[in-house]
Design a protein that fits this description.
The complex is a heterodimer of chains A (250) and B (494).
Chain A (H helix, E strand, L loop, with lengths): L1 E10 L2 E11 L4 E5 L6 H9 L4 E10 L2 E2 L5 H7 L1 E4 L6 E5 H15 L7 H14 L4 H5 L1 E2 L5 H15 L3 E5 L7 H13 L6 E6 L3 H5 L4 E6 L2 E6 L2 H9 L11
Parallel strand pairs in A: 3-10, 3-11, 6-9, 9-10
Antiparallel strand pairs in A: 1-2, 1-4, 4-5, 7-8, 11-12
Chain B lengths: L2 H14 L1 H4 L7 E3 L6 H10 L4 H15 L23 E3 L14 H10 L3 H7 L11 E7 L2 E5 L2 H6 L3 E4 H7 L1 H7 L10 H9 L4 E5 L8 E7 L10 E6 L4 E9 L7 E3 L2 E6 L4 E9 L11 E11 L5 E8 L4 E4 L2 E4 L5 E10 L4 E10 L5 E10 L4 E10 L7 E10 L5 E10 L5 E10 L2 H8 L5 H12 L1 H4 L4 H14 L6
Parallel strand pairs in B: 3-7, 6-8, 7-9, 8-11, 9-12, 10-13, 11-13, 12-14, 13-15, 13-16, 14-17, 15-18, 16-18, 17-19, 18-20, 19-21, 20-22, 21-23
Antiparallel strand pairs in B: 1-2, 3-4, 5-6
The chains are: A alpha/beta (250), B alpha/beta (494).
Chain lengths: 250, 494
């Protein structure tokens, strides 16, 4: 599904990722944990193609294709999805308009016919219902006036609609209370399948009790310093990240 | 190539192969010699068989115009116009040899219409297809060059006593109405361009809605500028008698021209007791190329008089075209409890300049006005909102709410807001809000990460920014306008 080899990346000339190696197979859920400033968000932006993140070395292959050669929108159309740490507000654009435009752009890329308004509404209503989102929420402007939990659920709704084969969840748990966290985790879990892989980025083990990963990696100062099973998350929760050194040591 | 240019390019390609598709058709222009003098004014009046009083009015305006100076206060910059270098009259001699059906029209041109979502029947009218006028829902009075050649749906309107015709016809058929109202909202001495219009206007639309009648359809005029070097001086007069209602749509496209073309129209609206006029414009004239060459100068005077109690005039405009826009659709709120509204989207790209806004003059008691202006600048364009809210001493309880938002795309464009507020009544309440924002990189990336191209993302974000205004447009126009908003910003990012 996804193969990251010796990935180095800089932001504003500063090297943040210093040789990441990671292979994710279809259906697997990998968690990346690590202290602040370890490069977790940089990794998610590099994979999703945000401008300003320069890859200086290494490769990323996604379903046999060179991911790094694609524009952000091509990656999305090919099936890469980023659930944002801070979903962005777009005033005046309704959720339905936004998602219809996005879904039809992705469908067009895949050579599928565009959905008409009726087909689309039926689909989004069904998906929103599964996430406990009412009609009012899907009609409102994208993330405008949404609570933290609503914004995250809205991102998961987008994921459910776009049906990516690889989803990156960037600190999806940040700013969520326990009820909101459960709702979001339920939404994510319902999207787990044998064909869909996920990369869950988080500081805390808490999220991983709800979205149970197959593999856990520790990212510290630009490198993956340790990998293990889901029990590694519990160990980190108990011990902290101190043993992986400080920025100066890296 | 950006779509706007493409549109223009296609239209130009078609018009240059004049006879092949018959788009500009074989109509020979009955052309007045270049230049402007009293003889030309007499020539125009004579050509149109006008009554003596109108000729006198034109001459009075012309003589006054000679004493006036071009206004320089607007934030626009353009080379001096040589008013002697234009033809002031061009009329089609015959309407034969039009395309017989859409099959005979250049498919490229139709593709452009398609892109804008113009309904098939309207496409036919725009392309000048013979007999395309029998269409439902929208009555189109197509202004071809300066003279109306097709007025549709007249019969149905006549049954209700509604008059919808060219102003020339109105001058012949309903002189008492024209004489009573023409120049009553925008007097002949009003301003440089309006005064010029009074002297040399060639045609335009006339609407009269009788007492208590609700006009059963949207009335629509497509303006187009077809003959080279022809200044356009449209004159529109709409009168809504007591208790009546009318919604009027004005939309336009123009083919490419090397020389700048002056367009100085005058629109006058009169709403009597309990009458409502809704006037919507989508303006998509040639804005000039990406280097700022060519393009239309759109110097328009639009004004509505809410003469009667409880009357209402609502202006909605989407301005995406023209090299220079100088336009302030205004309301004179004379009747007690009358309402004025102005909803505006002005998009400027490349080297376009727009200085646009409104004037709300509160005279009557409890008069209310709402102004929502959205300016979008991209490329090297300059956009200015200029608005006046004036509350006169007798306007007890007058209220105004103004909201001005500017959106910048890129770092070489400008947005300016110049509000004037004059209140001479202590009970009046005037509110003004203004914001300026840039499309954020976060928003663009968020859209792209969902599969939208950068241009689609900009189109979507800008449409969201304009939503409050676009939702005021009649359905027929709203879809077209949304596409236009996106198309006019193509190539503005990256």
């Amino acid at each position: 599904m996804l193969e990251i080899k010796n990935l180095h990346a800089t932001v504003d000339g500063k090297e943040i990722l210093k040789g990441i190696n990671l292979t994710i197979n279809p259906g697997e859920v990998h968690a990346i944990m690590g202290p602040n400033g370890s490069g977790k968000s940089t990794l998610s932006y590099v994979l999703s193609g945000r401008d300003g993140y320069e890859v200086t070395e290494g490769s990323v292959t996604f379903q046999g294709k060179d991911l790094l050669a694609m524009e952000a929108e091509e990656r999305a159309a090919e099936g890469v999805f980023l659930a944002f740490q801070y979903p962005v507000e777009i005033p005046g654009v309704s959720n339905t308009t936004f998602l219809k435009t996005a879904l039809n752009a992705v469908r067009k890329h895949k050579g599928l016919p565009e959905l008409d308004a009726m087909q689309f509404l039926k689909l989004i209503r069904a998906k929103a219902k599964a996430l406990n989102m009412n009609d009012d929420m899907i009609k409102r402007a994208v993330n405008v006036g949404f609570s933290g939990g609503e914004k995250k659920r809205n991102d998961i709704l987008q994921m459910a609609m776009l049906e990516p084969s690889f989803a990156i969840l960037d600190e999806t748990d940040s700013g969520l209370d326990i009820d909101a966290l459960k709702l979001v985790a339920d939404g994510v879990n319902s999207l787990r399948s044998a064909e869909r892989s996920m990369l869950v980025i988080t500081h805390y083990q808490r999220l991983l009790s709800y979205i149970v990963p197959d593999h856990v990696h520790v990212l510290a100062y630009g490198k993956i310093v340790r990998s293990g099973g889901k029990e590694l998350a519990l160990e980190l929760e108990a011990k902290g990240y101190a043993e992986f050194g400080s920025p100066e040591a890296a | 190539m950006a779509a706007t240019e493409q549109t223009v390019e296609q239209v130009r390609a078609v018009t240059e192969q004049k006879y092949k598709y018959g788009f500009t058709t074989e109509i020979e222009s009955d052309l007045a010699p270049k230049g402007l003098n009293e003889d030309i004014v007499r020539f125009i009046s004579a050509k149109k068989g006008e009554p003596e009083w109108l000729l006198e009015w034109r001459l009075q305006a012309y003589r006054h115009w000679l004493t006036m100076e071009e206004p320089t206060w607007a934030m626009v910059d353009f080379p001096k116009i040589d008013y002697q270098d234009s033809h002031y009259y061009a009329a089609p001699k015959a309407a034969k040899d039009k395309p017989k059906s859409l099959d005979e029209v250049d498919p490229e041109l139709l593709a452009t219409y398609e892109k804008l979502g113009i309904p098939l029947k309207e496409q036919a009218i725009l392309a000048g297809v013979e007999g395309a006028g029998d269409m439902p829902a929208v009555a189109v009075d197509a202004v071809f060059d300066s003279v109306s050649v097709a007025t549709t749906f007249k019969k149905k309107l006549e049954e209700k006593g509604i008059i919808f015709c060219s102003i020339s016809e109105a001058i012949r058929e309903h002189p008492e109405l024209v004489r009573k109202y023409l120049g009553s909202v925008v007097p002949y001495s009003d301003n440089y361009y309006a005064t010029l219009n009074c002297a040399v206007f060639t045609d335009g639309s006339f609407v009269y809605i009788p007492k208590g009648v609700r006009c059963p359809m949207e009335l629509s005029t497509y303006f187009r500028i077809n003959a080279s070097n022809t200044g356009q001086f449209e004159r529109t007069l709409i009168i809504a008698d007591e208790g009546s209602y009318v919604s009027y749509l004005e939309g336009c496209t123009a083919p490419m021209r090397d020389e700048n073309q002056l367009h100085a129209a005058v629109v006058e609206l009169v709403a009597l007791d309990d009458a409502t006029i809704k006037y919507s414009t989508v303006q998509n004239w040639y804005p000039g190329d990406e280097n700022g060459k060519g393009g239309i100068y759109n110097f328009v005077t639009k004004r509505g008089a809410c003469r009667g109690r409880n009357s209402k005039i609502s202006w909605t405009q989407v301005e995406t075209g023209s090299a220079i826009t100088w336009k302030y659709p205004s309301c004179i709120l004379q009747g007690d409890n009358s309402v004025g509204e102005f909803y505006s989207v002005a998009i400027t790209n490349n080297y376009q300049q727009a200085d646009t806004g409104t004037k709300m003059i509160h005279i009557g008691k409890n008069t209310r006005s709402t102004i929502v202006a959205k300016g979008i600048s991209a490329g090297k364009a300059q956009s200015t909102y200029r608005g006046l809210v004036r509350i006169l001493p007798k306007a007890e309880g007058a209220r105004n709410y103004t909201q001005c938002d500017s959106l910048l795309i890129g770092d070489k464009c400008g947005a300016h807001t110049v509000p004037y507020i004059e209140s001479r009544n202590r009970t009046a309440r005037v509110e003004h809000e203004a914001t300026t924002a840039k499309i954020s990189e976060d928003q663009l990336f968020y859209c792209r990460a969902r599969g939208l191209s950068e241009e689609d993302a900009v189109g979507l974000i800008v449409n969201g920014f304009c939503r409050e205004v676009l939702k005021e447009l009649p359905m027929e126009f709203a879809v077209e306008a949304q596409k236009l908003v996106a198309i006019s910003l193509e190539g503005s990012v990256g």
